[in-house]
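Case study 2.
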Amino acid sequence: MLPRKPSPTGKATDRWIVAGFALVIFGGFGFDLLANERPAWIVVPLVLVAYAPLLALHEAGHALAAATLGWRVVKVVIGFGRTILRFRVRSVPVDIRLLPVSGYVVPAPRSLDGARWRSVIIYAAGPAATLLVLAAVVAATGTDHLLSRSDRWPLLLAQSVALAAVLHTLPNLVPLPTDDGVTDGFGLLASLFRSEGSFEGQLAAGYAVAAEELLRRGDPAGAVSVYERAVAAHPHNVPLQLSLAASLVEAGRPAEAGRIVEPLLDDDALPNHWRAEVRNLVAKACVDLGREDLLAVADEQSLACLELAPHEPRYQITRGAVLLARGLLQPGLRLLRAARGALSPDDLRLDECDCYLAVGEKQQGNQAEAEHILEQLRARGARGELLDRTAREVADVAGSCGAGGTGNP
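Prediction:
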C-alpha cells in the first residue's frame, strides 16, 4: 500500500482492519478445528506466520520498483501501531510496527517526466511481488495438490503460504481509499488521472525527510539549505517554495519567508489546498515577526485557513498562536489543546504546539504548568528558535508578551 496523507482519524480504521483480519483467520481456525480430526487445522497458524514475510515482500516490491524507476524511497513502514524497530537500508528509513497486518511505502519522483505511468508501475509492484510467490507455490505443487486436503507437512506449508498470499492481495486490489492511505487497486486507477500538482507535492516529499531530520537535530539552517537547493532545481514547484518558506520561519527568518509566499497570495490559478498553506505561512510569519501592526493580517489569514479546514492541526496551531498574540487566551489554548490531541508523538508540529501552549499557560498565570511543558520539550530533545524564544518568555516573570513577542492589547 502507498500512503495518501497522514490522518488523525486513522485509529478507528486500524481497529476495523485488525477485527476483520482476526475474524477471517481465527474464524477459519475454529471451523477447521471443529470440522477436521486431521492436522489440517494447522494451516491457520501457519498462515499467520507466513503473512508477515509476505507483507515485507509486498512493501519491498513497491520500494524496489520506485528505486528502479529513478524515484526516491522516502520511507518504508511494515505493520501499523507502535513502532518496535527502526533501522535504515541504504539510507532509507524502515519502521517495523507492532501489528504486521498492513504497511506502506512513501515514494517521491525526482522529476515529473512520466510520473503517471511510473506511479502505476510502483503501485502494481507490491501485489505483483506477492502474486509471484503464489505463482511459484502453484508451479511447485500443482493446482490439484494445492486444493486437496493432506496430512503432509510440506503441502500444508505450501497451502498456508498460498492462502496468506491470497488474503493479502485480493483485498488490496479492491479500489478503496482508507484513512492512512489507499489500496493499491485505488492507486493504480487514480495514478492515471492524477494532476501534475499532486505529483509536485509528492516530489517535494522527497526532500522533506532530510529537512525534517535536520530540524530534529536543531539545525533549521540546514533544512533551509536543503529546500534552497531543491527550489533551485525545481523553481516552479509550489510545494517546495512553501516548504522553503516554512523552514525559514523555523530558522527565525519570517521576513524572508514572507517574500517567498507573498506572490503566491495573488496567484488565482493556485489550488485551494495550496492557497490555504500560503495563508497559514503568512500568518505564522506575521506572528513570528512580533509586530502588532501585522497581527490583523495574521488574524485574517489564520481565520481563512481554519474556515477551509477547521480540524487541520497545523492550522489550529497557527490560529491558536495568533489568538495568544492578540491576548485571547482561552480560545487560543482551546485550539492548541485540540491540535495537540490530534498529533502523533513523533510529529514535529507537536513541539511547535507545546511551545505556544507553554506561552499561553504563562500568560494565564500558570507558571508551574508552563515550566513543566518546557521541561517535557527539552526531555524529548526539542530544539530551535521557537523553543529558545519560549524559554525566554516563560523565564520572564514580569513578561506579558505573546508567542510572537508582541504585547497583549
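Strands lie at 72-89, 92-108.
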